[in-house]
Specification:
Blueprint (H helix, E strand, L loop, with lengths): L16 E5 L6 H12 L4 E5 L3 H13 L4 E6 L1 H11 L5 E6 L5 H6 L6 H10 L2 E4 L2 E3 L2 E3 L2 E5 H8 L2 H7 L2 H11 L6 E5 L4 E4 L1 E5 L21 E6 L3 H13 L9 E6 L2 E13 L2 E13 L4 E4 L8 H16 L4
Helix pairs in contact: 2-3, 6-8
The structure holds magnesium ion.
Length: 326
């Protein structure tokens, strides 16, 4: 009788996820994320990136290699860069929220304030497929803006953001409010026409953090929710706030809401364009259309609270705080 003694040397290693991150990202959230990543460095194949273009190219390389998923640690700008690299592939995006606003993470119900829970979502591996749209060839997952909000981003310098934080945007906005913006003409593929001084396009509900600006949006319904603002300056701001207080910015008299999968915006002058919160540049002709493929993104299968409900709660808490009532 033969007895075989086997000493197994097989060790089942936990899966290592390719993770793209910017080691120079500053801010409290970015530093927390960096510490979180280093504590679990054995779970990741780390790729430090120095620019959005590098993040995009690396993501594209992983996609071409057939990698099932790529994680990105960062805010909406970083995620947008990685998404550009994943377009048209089966590679899913995993999100480690490390930005200031994390609008996209909030939209999907990814715990944006708890990295442990955000990583649990990645480990659970549920994949949601969402619509992707593009403006002049630049893809976006969450939203794009033409005119006023892009102008605010354009006017806000990096130095002032570093010194003043969110106040820098308010200062830039105050400066722009006094200026007369050029009139933009919008035309949808269905032939509907509108004129306005600012146009926002939402794939998801949320805008700029926790404001549910596109209350009827759904990032799986194959259309963009479009808001056309007809009034400029302080009327734009006052009407928007009044509209939101009544339950939706589109309820304001000077705001028109429409839905379409393709539209164009033209103007006699150049206007700035932002995608997912980052300035794209200036143009006098912006063409929006759906991308051929959806984005696969790792998200909770059952978000704890409805995105809209959570967003409304957060928004009301914030407005009460601003009014000194909390
Ligand atoms: Mg939609």
């Amino acid at each position: 009788m033969q007895i075989l003694l086997c000493y197994s040397t097989d060790v089942t290693l936990p899966r290592r996820y390719p993770l793209l991150f910017n080691p120079k990202a500053h801010g409290e959230k970015a530093q927390k994320a960096a510490a979180f990543i280093m504590e679990r460095a054995t779970r990741f194949a780390l790729y430090a990136t120095s620019s959005p273009a590098e993040a995009r190219d690396l993501a594209a390389k992983f996609a071409a290699d057939g990698e099932p998923c790529v994680l990105a640690a960062g805010g909406d700008g970083t995620l947008n860069a990685v998404v550009q690299g994943l377009v048209g592939s089966n590679t899913a995006l995993g999100v480690i929220p490390a930005g200031t606003m994390n609008v996209f993470a909030r939209e999907l119900g990814i715990p944006y304030g708890n990295l442990h829970k955000a990583f649990d979502v990645i480990e659970a591996g549920y994949i949601r497929e969402i619509d992707l749209f593009q403006v002049n060839g630049a893809p976006f997952m969450q939203m794009a803006g033409l005119g006023f909000d892009a102008m605010v981003i354009e006017e806000t310098t990096w130095e002032s953001k570093k010194m003043l934080g969110p106040l820098a945007y308010l200062l830039a906005a105050a400066k722009i409010l006094g200026e007369k913006p050029p009139l933009m003409k919008l035309r949808t593929a269905e032939g509907r026409e509108e004129e306005g001084v600012a146009v926002l396009a939402g794939n998801g509900v949320l805008y700029g953090g926790q404001v549910p600006l596109f209350r009827m949006a759904n990032n799986q319904d194959e259309v963009l929710d479009i808001l056309v603002f007809h009034e400029a300056g302080y009327r734009l701001v006052m009407d928007s706030i009044t509209g939101i207080a009544r339950g939706g910015v589109d309820l304001a008299k000077s705001v028109t809401h429409l839905q379409s999968a393709a539209f164009e915006v033209t103007c006699d002058e150049d206007f700035p364009v932002q995608v997912d919160g980052d300035l794209l540049g200036r143009t006098s002709h912006a063409l929006f259309s759906a991308m051929e493929n959806r984005l696969r993104v790792i998200a909770p299968e059952h978000p704890m609270v409805s995105r809209f409900g959570e967003a409304m709660n957060a928004f009301w808490t914030w407005t009460r705080k601003m009014q000194g009532k909390s």
